[in-house]
C-alpha cells in the first residue's frame, strides 16, 4: 500500500507539478494575450476615433452642402416668386375695367370654411386642421373655374354671347365628364356571387 500510495502521490505530485506549470504558463500566456488584446483594442479604438472624426467631418461637409443647396433653392424660389408677381402685375395692369372687376370678384370669392369643415368631418369622421380646410376650400373654387371656362367655350362655339345660361353649364359639365375631368357621380355596384 505504501508503494501504491507513493505511486499515486508521485503521479499526483507530477500531475500537481504539471498543473502548476500549466497554470503558470496559461497565466503568462493569458497576460501576453491580454496585452495583445489591449494593444489591438487600442488600435481599434484609435481607428474608430479616426473613423468617427472622419464621419464627423463628412457630416459637417454634408450639412454645409445642404445649407448651400437650401440657400440656392430659396434664392431660386424667391426669384421665381418675384418673376410671377411681376408677370401678374403686368397682366392685371393690362385688364380692362370689366376684367378687373371680374378678377377682383374671383379673388374675393370663397366657400365658407365652416361648411367645408363640417362636410369633411362628416365624410372622414375625424376632426381636421385649419390647413386642410383651407386647401379643401380651394379645390371647389378651381373646379368651378374650369366648368365656367368650358361653359364660355361652349357659348362661343354655339355662336351665343355671355351671360352664361344653365344650358351652357350643363353642356360644359357633360364635356368635362367625357374628357374624364369629372368623375362619374352615379356608381354602379358590381355584385359578385
UniProtKB/TrEMBL annotation:
<feature type="domain" description="TAFII28-like protein">
    <location>
        <begin position="90"/>
        <end position="175"/>
    </location>
</feature>
<keyword id="KW-0539">Nucleus</keyword>
<dbReference type="InterPro" id="IPR009072">
    <property type="entry name" value="Histone-fold"/>
</dbReference>
<keyword id="KW-0804">Transcription</keyword>
<protein>
    <recommendedName>
        <fullName>Transcription initiation factor TFIID subunit 11</fullName>
    </recommendedName>
</protein>
<feature type="region of interest" description="Disordered">
    <location>
        <begin position="1"/>
        <end position="52"/>
    </location>
</feature>
<comment type="function">
    <text>The TFIID basal transcription factor complex plays a major role in the initiation of RNA polymerase II (Pol II)-dependent transcription. TFIID recognizes and binds promoters with or without a TATA box via its subunit TBP, a TATA-box-binding protein, and promotes assembly of the pre-initiation complex (PIC). The TFIID complex consists of TBP and TBP-associated factors (TAFs), including TAF1, TAF2, TAF3, TAF4, TAF5, TAF6, TAF7, TAF8, TAF9, TAF10, TAF11, TAF12 and TAF13.</text>
</comment>
<dbReference type="InterPro" id="IPR045127">
    <property type="entry name" value="TAF11-like"/>
</dbReference>
<feature type="compositionally biased region" description="Basic and acidic residues">
    <location>
        <begin position="29"/>
        <end position="52"/>
    </location>
</feature>
<dbReference type="GO" id="GO:0046982">
    <property type="term" value="F:protein heterodimerization activity"/>
</dbReference>
<dbReference type="InterPro" id="IPR006809">
    <property type="entry name" value="TAFII28_dom"/>
</dbReference>
<dbReference type="Pfam" id="PF04719">
    <property type="entry name" value="TAFII28"/>
</dbReference>
<feature type="compositionally biased region" description="Basic and acidic residues">
    <location>
        <begin position="9"/>
        <end position="18"/>
    </location>
</feature>
<dbReference type="GO" id="GO:0051123">
    <property type="term" value="P:RNA polymerase II preinitiation complex assembly"/>
</dbReference>
<keyword id="KW-0805">Transcription regulation</keyword>
<comment type="similarity">
    <text>Belongs to the TAF11 family.</text>
</comment>
<comment type="subunit">
    <text>Component of the TFIID basal transcription factor complex, composed of TATA-box-binding protein TBP, and a number of TBP-associated factors (TAFs), including TAF1, TAF2, TAF3, TAF4, TAF5, TAF6, TAF7, TAF8, TAF9, TAF10, TAF11, TAF12 and TAF13. Interacts with TAF13 both in vitro and intracellularly; also interacts directly with TBP.</text>
</comment>
<dbReference type="GO" id="GO:0005669">
    <property type="term" value="C:transcription factor TFIID complex"/>
</dbReference>
<dbReference type="GO" id="GO:0016251">
    <property type="term" value="F:RNA polymerase II general transcription initiation factor activity"/>
</dbReference>
Amino acid at each position: 500500500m505504501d508503494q501504491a500510495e507513493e505511486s499515486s502521490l508521485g503521479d499526483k505530485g507530477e500531475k500537481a507539478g504539471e498543473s502548476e506549470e500549466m497554470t503558470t504558463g496559461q497565466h503568462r500566456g493569458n497576460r501576453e494575450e491580454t496585452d495583445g488584446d489591449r494593444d489591438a483594442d487600442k488600435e481599434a479604438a484609435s481607428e474608430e476615433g479616426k473613423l468617427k472624426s472622419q464621419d464627423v467631418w463628412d457630416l459637417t461637409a454634408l450639412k454645409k452642402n445642404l445649407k448651400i443647396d437650401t440657400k440656392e433653392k430659396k434664392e431660386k424660389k424667391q426669384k421665381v416668386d418675384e418673376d410671377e408677381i411681376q408677370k401678374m402685375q403686368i397682366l392685371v395692369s393690362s385688364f380692362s375695367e370689366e376684367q378687373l372687376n371680374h378678377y377682383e370678384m374671383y379673388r374675393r370669392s370663397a366657400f365658407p370654411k365652416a361648411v367645408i369643415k363640417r362636410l369633411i368631418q362628416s365624410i372622414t369622421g375625424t376632426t381636421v386642421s385649419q390647413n386642410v380646410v383651407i386647401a379643401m376650400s380651394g379645390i371647389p373654387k378651381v373646379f368651378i373655374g374650369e366648368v365656367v371656362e368650358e361653359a364660355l367655350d361652349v357659348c362661343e362655339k354655339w355662336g351665343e354671347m355671355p351671360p352664361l345660361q344653365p344650358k351652357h353649364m350643363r353642356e360644359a359639365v357633360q364635356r368635362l365628364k367625357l374628357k374624364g375631368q369629372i368623375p362619374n357621380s352615379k356608381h354602379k355596384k358590381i355584385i359578385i356571387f
